[in-house]
Structures are given as structure tokens and as C-alpha cells.
Amino acid sequence: MNDYILPNRNHEEPHQEEDEKEHSTRLFEWRGNWVSKEEAIALHHVFDNLQDYFGFGHQVPDPRVKFNLISASSNARDLKFTYDIDGHECNLAYIGIDICLDLSHKLVHRHGQQMMQDYGKSWLFAYMPGTTMDKIKSYVKNGTGLDVSNECAVHDLNRNLVGIEAKMHHQSGTPKPSFWVLPEEEQASSITRDNSVEFSRIGTVQEVFDEQKSKQRIHRGIGMFAVSLEVDDTSDSDLDGEASLSFTLVSIRTW
To answer: Quick one: residue 131, left, alpha or beta (phi over 0 = left, psi -120 to 50 = alpha)?
Structure first.
């Protein structure tokens, strides 16, 4: 089943007039996206096999991935992730995080206006244990040299939970985050390091939020995120000062 996560560039087959032999060695199809061999391996590893994600339930406490800062002219810098897959380094723009995603509808003003503008359309609340966020921060520090501020999250000290605003693409022509569910006959405990579980796509996160009342609640699952850093522009160096994290949800596998 398709999972269009790559914006605008890889949703169509390579042009026939180009060398087919070149494409057969350079591009591979992964769920409707044409990608390099390295990227296909990493996508299968992270999205299909749910390997090296951050959070509880994983048999590897320290995900085998390095965080790399992509240079940019602005203060917002995207992170690239290098996975160690069977001894091979494969780069990918996404990481998996064990989260709870809040699809419950929020209160509205008495005049009918939603208190949280565009909630369920361009962003949602996602929650993770404080230890998971601390682990992610340590990977950012080790990979980029930057400390991560607390501006990106709200801490519930009583429950040891961290809440983040997970951004979502929603503009026309941009792939919206996909929502996948575990078949009823499967159990969440079957998600292990050596067992690939087949999830079913039931729509975009926005469609589920708007149209499926039975799903309008908090869901546990593995969220796939693109992550960027906003670096303090007053620093003398890219490796000085603090940075805030920004998470963009591109897909979630729930149970």
C-alpha cells in the first residue's frame, strides 16, 4: 500500500525516454515513492520494520542512528539521520518515536470558534515520556554539538510526560501524514525486533480526525517525524548556544 511521504518529487515512474537501465540501478519503488537504494533500505527499516525508534518497547535501548545537521543559510536547520543497518550506513530524513497522538476534538468558544486554531489540520499534540525526550536531546548533542532548549515541549512533571506540538503538512499538493492501524487479530506485543508487522492505511491523519468518530481519541503508536532545529542567531558559531526542536509528523503506525 502506498505511503506518499516525499513531497512532489517521487510519486511518478521515471520518464521512459531516460535510460531504463540507469533507473533500474539508481531508483527503487517504496510504497509509491521512487527513491535511491540506500533510502529504500532505510525506509523499509524504519517505516515497515519499525526499527531503531526512540521510546519504550524496543529491544535496543540506544537506537543505532546518528543525528547530522544539514547546513542552511537560515536559522532553521533540518536534521538528517544516518542508520547503521547490517553494517551499512543509510541516510534518511526521518526518525521514529513511540508516542501518544491526541486526535480528540478540543473545546470551542461559545461562538463556535475552535480555541486551538487549525488543531487536527496543521498540528496535533503528541506525548512521550520525559526519558524519551532526554534521549533525543542527547543524540542531538552528540551529533551536532548543540544543546536543546525546553521551548519545544511542555513538561508534566507529575506524570513524567512531555507534550509537543507535532506539525502536519496540509497544503494542496503536499503529502499529508498517513494513519496506519494494526489489524485486530494482531497484538501490540507482536511488534518486536525480528518480526515485521503489516499495518493497514485507513487515510490521512486529517481524514481520521475529521471523519472517523471512533478514532477521535488518544492513540499509542510509532510516529515518523522529520525534525528541524531552530538555532539562536545570536550565537557566534553554529555549535554554540541552544536550539529548539521542531517535529513534523509524516506518518504514524498505531495499535
So the answer is: alpha
Half-sphere exposure of 102 (CA within 13 A, CB side): 16
CA distance linking residue 214 with residue 216, whole number of Å: 6
Residue 218 in this model has a pLDDT that exceeds 50: yes
What is the predicted pLDDT for the residue at 160? Answer: 84
| Mean pLDDT computed over 61-66 | 93
pTM for the predicted model, two decimal places? 0.86
pLDDT higher than threshold 80 for residue 115: no
How far, in Å, CA of 19 to CA of 34, rounded? 15
Band (pLDDT 50/70/90 cuts) for residue 221 is very high
| Distance in angstroms (rounded) separating the CA atoms of residues 49 and 39 | 14
Q: What gap in Å lies between CA 183 and CA 2, rounded to an integer? A: 17
Alpha-carbon distances of 174 from 9, 24, 43, 164, rounded to whole Å: 10, 27, 19, 22
Alpha helices in 99-239 (DSSP H): 130-144, 205-211
**DSSP per-residue codes, 37-87:** HHHHHHHIIIIIS--S-BSTT-S-SS-SEEEEEPP-SSSEEEEEEEEEETT
CA distance 17 to 157: 59
Instruction: Quote the strand ranges of the chain, DSSP E.
Output: 28-30, 33-35, 65-69, 76-85, 88-92, 95-102, 123-129, 147-148, 153-156, 161-168, 178-181, 200-204, 218-231, 242-254
Write the CB contacts of 89 (distance below 8 Å, at least 6 apart in sequence). 82, 83
Asked if 206 and 216 count as a contact pair (C-beta separation under 8 A), the reply is: no
| Mean pLDDT, residues 157-178 taken together | 90
Residue 78 contacts residue 127 (beta carbons within 8 Å)? no
